[in-house]
Write a structure and sequence with these properties.
Length: 505
């Protein structure tokens, strides 16, 4: 693995060299002589290398700022987790302090890259920089409420004096003299130098190589070689189909603690029902926490997978920040928690027989497609008490279908922001704040919202397997086989499942 700043020219050059070497070496292996499990690993590894190498064509390092889940927010989340789960030794804190130096270098390199981007015609949309400024302002404020000071308040008793005082002083100095000034410097650079030259539009197609870049991101997100027009047509058809099924269902609004408690009750209910459809439940649990803000706008829930080294746990965040979000979403829980993202990710991480790159890797189409498929299982799990409750199940499907239309419209079909806002309001019923937030999310993460389209492929895969096996079809075995080998490109999954179904006849 390359070492150094992840957006520096040297790091990127070293990374590309390593990826090319890995690809060349694996292609020299005799694939036909491998067993089925090893051939699958070979194919997944090769596909990943090819996709990553193609991605180096496009200078994403020149656009390092993302107001939804960028590096500053990720580093702040690490500090919050350090405070929530304090390590037992001073050495762990000292390792975090070393990462502060790495982060400071990242902020400096980000400014260098953005200056180069301005020179070459690669600038971020102005609306994204405007969203980022107040975030950096908060993360640069030298006040006790700043999240970066939170670890000081939870130092474990196991760290005794004088090491405790020395560590407290070291953390305070590093935060006040290095970390916070770095955030303030990045904020000032964005406000004074970059914002005036940021672009007014939001389409990726506006940039040099923009159309090719978007096509690459579409392929990366969906795992399919489809044009934006094809994806848009699928989205329009889905919007019409789902709209014909939708019913209005108004759940009672809850206060923040009540909402978290309601989701914990729902988790127990879902766990009790899952053996009807699933033969394996992950050993790892997940926490359910309140959050005043989620990285994806207009979302009730957000799942954060556990870290690969066991430092950060799996968490399902519940949006308690706005009254409009304070309603229990059954389908949202099924999608983000169980049997959706947590079931798939946690089982994968527990597969110690898998190579590490597969245990802790991901495939957007697989993960998002499985999540959307899982959201449709509420009725089969016996969780919907009446017809009106089923309307919740269509909400996630409609959100995905609308994303197929709006994302492609904005980035490839010349849609204006007003067109996109009208479409979101008409089909998702969003207020202006949420609709504006979703538009900016599409701008910050072109094509990422299209990954959910794989949910259609999961449903089609189940239908084909049921037709092939007839009375021999066992849904528990079907689900176990889908999840057995972790996330992978959808065509590889479909090929694997065909072999399995043929052998099960």
């Amino acid at each position: 693995m390359a070492k150094g700043n992840a957006i520096s020219p040297q790091f990127l050059a070293d990374s590309l060299s390593i990826e090319r070497r890995y690809l060349a070496e694996v292609r020299n292996l005799p694939r036909d002589g491998l067993d089925a499990a090893s051939r699958l690993t070979y194919d997944i590894f090769t596909r990943q290398r090819e996709l990553i190498i193609e991605g180096f064509t496009f200078p994403s390092e020149l656009l390092p700022i993302n107001p939804f889940d960028g590096m500053p927010q990720q580093f702040a989340a690490q500090a919050s987790e350090l405070a929530r789960h304090p390590p037992a030794s001073a050495a762990d804190y000292e390792n975090w302090l070393k990462r502060v130096d790495e982060y400071v270098r990242w902020t400096q390199q980000a400014a260098v890259n953005m200056r180069e981007g301005m020179r070459r015609g690669y600038t971020s949309p102005r609306v994204l920089i405007e969203r980022m400024l107040p975030i950096l302002e908060r993360l640069g404020a030298d006040e006790s409420a700043n999240v970066f000071y939170a670890p000081l308040r939870t130092l474990p008793a196991a760290i005794a004096e004088p090491a405790r005082s020395e560590l407290t002083k070291a953390i305070t100095v590093v935060i006040s003299q290095k970390l916070l000034p770095a955030n303030r410097a990045l904020h000032d650079f964005l406000r004074q130098e970059y914002l005036p030259r940021a672009r007014a539009g939001i389409a990726l197609s506006e940039l040099p190589l923009g159309d090719q870049w978007y096509a690459y991101r579409v392929k990366r997100a969906t795992g399919a070689a489809m044009s934006p027009d094809e994806i848009s047509r699928i989205g329009v058809a889905e919007v019409q189909r789902i709209g014909a099924l939708a019913q209005t269902h108004d759940a009672a609004a809850l206060a923040g603690p009540e909402l978290v408690s309601a989701y914990r009750d729902l988790e127990a209910q879902v766990r009790a029902a899952m053996p009807n459809l699933f033969s394996e439940i992950p050993q790892e649990d997940f926490d359910i926490r309140a959050a005043e803000w989620l990285s994806e706008p207009a979302s009730a829930l957000y799942y954060q997978r556990a870290g690969s080294f066991g430092w950060t746990p799996a968490v399902l965040y519940v949006d308690t920040g706005r009254a409009v979000a304070r309603r229990v979403s059954m389908a949202g829980f099924l999608q983000q928690g169980l049997p959706g993202h947590h079931l798939q990710v946690a089982l994968q991480q527990e597969r110690t027989s898998l190579p590490r790159f597969r245990r802790f890797g991901s495939d957007a189409a697989f993960t998002e497609g499985w999540g959307l498929y899982a959201a449709s299982l509420g009725e089969a799990l016996g969780l919907y008490p009446d017809e009106s409750a089923k309307s919740d199940a269509t909400a996630g499907e409609m959100r995905c279908a609308v994303a197929l239309v709006v994302d492609t419209g904005l980035h490839a079909k010349g849609w204006t922001r007003a067109q996109a806002l009208d479409y979101l309001r008409a089909h998702l019923g969003l207020d202006d704040l949420d609709a504006q937030g979703m538009i900016d999310w599409y701008a910050a993460k072109p094509a990422d919202a299209l990954a959910c389209m794989a949910g259609l492929r999961f449903r089609a895969l189940r239908t084909r397997t049921q037709q092939l096996l007839g009375g021999r079809f066992d849904v528990r075995e079907f689900h176990a086989e889908i999840l057995r080998d972790g996330a992978m490109p959808m065509d590889l999954l479909e090929a694997k499942m065909k072999v399995w179904a043929d052998a099960s006849k």
